[in-house]
Write a structure and sequence with these properties.
The protein has 680 residues and is an alpha/beta fold. The chain has a domain at 5-285. It contains 16 helices and 25 strands. It has a 9-stranded mixed β-sheet, sandwiched between helices. Strands 7-10-9 form a 3-stranded antiparallel β-sheet, covered by helices on one side. A hairpin with a 7-residue loop joins strand 1 (5-6) and strand 2. The longest helix has 31 residues, at 430-460. The termini are far apart.
């Protein structure tokens, strides 16, 4: 066992044989295991080092350590620049760098052994301490933030489109996974909402979901430049960490263990520590802490004793029979969000009646007796702030008539009735977000239970085939359709249209932010505060964010779920759901893109069309990309001023409708465009 000896503690200097030690936050370093490298990521080791050379297993609690008494009122030799309660390695802004293990404490009762904990001085206005109770790590798709006093030149960062550049040694920013030393592809961008006289924020966004319960090191190198082209240097506090001279300053002393771990990770990955001007680590939250509630709810939904389903109104026109009715569902939402039993397990607290709409195209019901057949039922997920009756009209109904599909819709995802909760949440009411999350999860249950009610409805409406019930959703329905398809016990086919994941990452890039963003700006007038708010908002939305579930969308599925086949559809330069958030869902789900494609997407496997019939009928999933030649995006995190329309008009394309009809009716995944879909 290596002994860690502290020398001249009053001066804050010590020698570290292998690892430092923090008596208040003991750390267990597990063996680093080579878990392999995915096809779109690169494992980089020092030229003379192999993964086996990095294996060690040291429990700090077992080490023979001479620890100082940190409870005494020792005066530091040097006070580094810092914000009250903040981290001096990035002193420009409290909370930065974020996320960071600087704000973790040990809690053996959680899934990771940690719990997020902030000093009261750094809590944001709308993120009280109770918002983080029991949170055992940070989001698996974090907004990683650092502040720079003289602004940042975007050109000093890697390409925002070729994410492979962020894996290279010369990348200004790197993100390294501890267990595998894998470098994580990401977007590194400057916050463009900042004026030139304000400090700059660098935002790092992973473009693939991170592993749960895993440590990551963030690295920023000295190629980072300010707005005048000058290279940044390490802050005084970070340089002191590098030099092993914390000068008796407690906020640095408490980071020495994690910093020495970072140093080993950085060197093992093949980087030169001399070029590093800022580095820190953070730990992602456990999967169960995010997904357990919804998975349990969906499991209960598959066996819940069905109640009553009624028809309230039936009307006909030349194209459809439209039915509205009421249906009884298990209710999980209480006065303060989800309801739990004494063991802390989510539970239904009663029943609730919900309204549904059902559409049966006339082309099905008017078939002759010899030609009549029951046809598939599409459970339809409507758009953002929409309602159940969107399943009865527009281009979706046109496609249903062409394909001879029935459709059922309920309120889904973030529907119109949740607008008040959404506005209050963005404006600063934390409890409103608790209700929003609970209501969104309730809609997932409702769709699973409703699909079981189809057997009852079939007795009155024989056009419904209870053995062929599929899911399709657009926009909000595409986004939360990922959530539904990943968690439901009952779905076998899903069509996910112009959706995405990473809910807080959506916001500043969407046209809707031009309105909704004003609510948040009332509380957070400083851009760096806004980014901190959005980053913590991602933590809060994780339980309903599909990005935390899509690595189980296709394979491996969550336990007990049916095999799923799926399509993902994306419109280039979609001004409501940015391509970035659609692409990282596809990448995280390991779904290939069909080619020829009008856009090259980094890290996605390409499948050239036409596919053989055998492949087309058995391929688990594919992404379709359409280009209607609309106005391109503004750079970085700036929302388009005007909606370019492709979010909606792509659904009117002949090729788009054929792709979906062939899949839902015949199980064929095939691109029918002549060349790239630009648009046809």
């Amino acid at each position: 066992m290596n002994k860690i000896v502290f020398l001249s503690f009053y001066l804050g200097t010590f020698l570290i044989s292998h690892l430092g030690c923090d008596e208040t936050n003991p750390v267990v370093i597990e063996p680093i295991i080579d878990q392999g490298v995915s096809s779109d990521q690169e494992l980089v080791l020092a030229p003379d080092m192999q993964p086996a050379d990095m294996q060690f297993n040291m429990n700090i609690n077992d080490a023979e350590i001479e620890l100082p008494d940190l409870s005494t009122d020792l005066e530091p030799v040097f006070e580094f620049p810092n914000q009250i309660g903040g981290n001096p390695i990035n002193p420009e802004s409290a909370l930065y760098p974020y996320p960071s293990d600087f704000y973790l404490k040990v809690n053996p009762e959680t899934g990771t052994g940690f719990e997020v904990s902030f000093p009261s001085e750094v809590l944001l206005k709308t993120m009280p301490a109770e918002a983080f109770e029991g949170q055992d790590g940070f989001s698996r798709l974090p907004m990683i933030l650092s502040a720079w006093p003289r602004g940042v030149e975007q050109a000093s960062l890697a390409s925002t489109s070729d994410h492979g550049d962020t894996l290279l040694d010369e990348s200004t920013t790197l993100l390294i996974e501890h267990d595998s030393l894998r470098r994580i592809p990401h977007v590194a961008e400057v916050d463009l909402t900042v004026s030139e006289d304000q400090e700059g924020t660098v935002i790092i966004r992973p473009v693939v979901v991170l592993k749960p319960n895993q440590s990551y090191t963030v690295v920023i190198q000295n190629t980072l430049k300010d707005l005048e082209g000058r290279n940044y240097e390490a802050s005084a506090a970070f340089q002191a960490l590098k030099d092993g001279e914390p000068q008796g300053y407690a906020p640095l002393i408490r980071q020495q263990v994690s910093f020495e771990e970072n140093r080993q990770i950085i060197v093992a990955s093949g980087l030169n520590m001399d070029s590093v001007i800022l580095a820190w680590q953070f730990h992602t939250r456990s999967q169960d802490s995010v997904t357990a509630d919804l998975l349990r709810m969906q499991e209960q939904a598959s066996v819940w004793p069905l109640g009553q389903v009624s028809v309230v109104e039936e009307r006909q026109n030349s194209q459809n029979t439209i039915i509205e009715g009421e249906v009884e569902m298990p209710l999980y939402v209480g006065e303060d969000g989800l309801s739990y039993d004494e063991q802390g397990q989510v539970q239904a607290v009663g029943t609730q009646v919900y309204t549904y709409s059902m559409t049966i195209p006339t082309v099905i019901t008017e078939a002759t007796e010899s030609e009549f057949e029951a046809r598939p039922v599409i459970m339809y997920g409507h758009g953002f702030l929409g309602d159940h009756d969107q399943s009865t009209r527009s281009s979706f109904n046109e496609m249903c008539r062409r394909g001879k599909f029935n459709a059922i819709g309920l309120k889904f995802g973030i529907h119109g009735d949740l607008l008040t909760w959404l506005i209050q949440g963005i404006a600063g009411n934390f409890k409103a977000f608790k209700m929003l999350k609970a209501e969104v999860m309730q809609t997932m249950v409702n769709y699973s239970v409703m699909s079981r009610y189809v057997s009852q409805l079939n007795q009155r409406y024989p056009a419904l085939d209870p053995n062929r019930i599929y899911y399709m959703g657009i926009s909000n329905g595409g986004t939360f359709g990922n959530l539904y398809a990943a968690t439901s016990m009952l779905v076998e086919k899903a069509v996910l249209v112009v959706g995405g994941g990473g809910l807080a990452h959506f916001l500043q890039r969407a046209t809707q932010w031009n309105t909704l963003g004003d609510l948040a700006k009332r509380e957070y007038t400083e851009p760096w505060l806004m980014q901190a708010y959005l980053s913590q908002l991602q933590d809060q939305l994780d339980p309903i964010d599909p990005i935390n579930y899509v690595d189980h969308l296709i394979s491996p599925r969550f336990e007990g779920r049916l095999p799923l086949r799926a399509q993902i559809h994306m419109a280039i330069h979609d001004s409501q759901v940015h391509n970035l958030v659609s692409e990282w869902v596809t990448r995280s789900a390991n779904i290939p893109v069909l080619t020829p494609s009008p856009k090259w997407i980094w890290g996605l496997q390409e499948l050239e069309s036409p596919l053989s019939l055998e492949v087309a009928q058995t391929l688990p999933a594919a992404m379709y990309v359409y280009d209607e030649m609309v106005a391109p995006y503004p750079p970085n995190n700036i929302a388009p001023i005007e909606d370019n329309g492709t979010h909606g008009t792509v659904r009117q394309l002949e090729s788009y409708q054929r792709h979906i009809i062939d899949f839902l009716d015949q199980g064929i995944i095939q691109q029918v465009c002549e060349g790239a879909c630009d648009p046809e």
